TrEMBL record:
Keywords: Cell membrane, Membrane, Transmembrane, Transmembrane helix. It is found in: Cell membrane. The keyword Membrane applies. It comes from the Bacteria. This is DUF421 domain-containing protein. The chain crosses the membrane at residues 26-43. InterPro entries: DUF421, UPF0702_alpha/beta_dom_sf. The keyword Membrane applies. Pfam families: DUF421. Residues 45-113 form the YetF C-terminal domain.
Length: 128
């Protein structure tokens, strides 16, 4: 999100005659400083991390799509299938888990690589 904001701010500085270079520079410095403060705070105090970022979410477990979770997190079945295909799998039954990560990416764990699922320890619902 910060990258998009920085790009948008830079484009406005370069293309708009209504924004001076100094105003744009202040905006860029402010965005970078805020990003630094958020990153520093979330690494020092775990409670702020949970307030500012979402927890990873289980979308598929042992090849079964958790439909209600897809709706809650606004992930379409097509997006889910696309992530599975991108991982090299053509069969949902061969997928051990799909996790919607806190950064918005979808992680696909093949059933053959699931093992004891210890990598899913911080994912709610993974050990049911």
């Amino acid at each position: 999100m910060v990258t998009v904001a920085l790009g948008s701010t830079l484009a406005t500085i370069l293309l708009s005659t209504d924004v001076s270079w100094s105003e744009g520079a202040v905006a860029l410095v402010l965005l970078v400083a805020l990003q630094f403060v958020v990153a520093w705070t979330t690494t020092r105090w775990p409670a702020t991390r949970s307030a500012l970022t979402s927890a990873p979410t289980l979308l598929v477990l042992h090849g079964e799509i958790l439909e209600e979770v897809l709706g809650e997190h606004r992930v379409s079945p097509g997006e889910l299938r696309q992530a599975v295909r991108a991982s090299g799998s053509g069969d949902l039954s061969q997928v051990g888990a799909v996790v919607l990560e806190s950064d918005g990416t979808l992680s696909v764990v093949p059933a053959s690589s699931l093992g004891d699922a210890s990598a899913l320890r911080d994912v709610p619902g993974a050990h049911t």
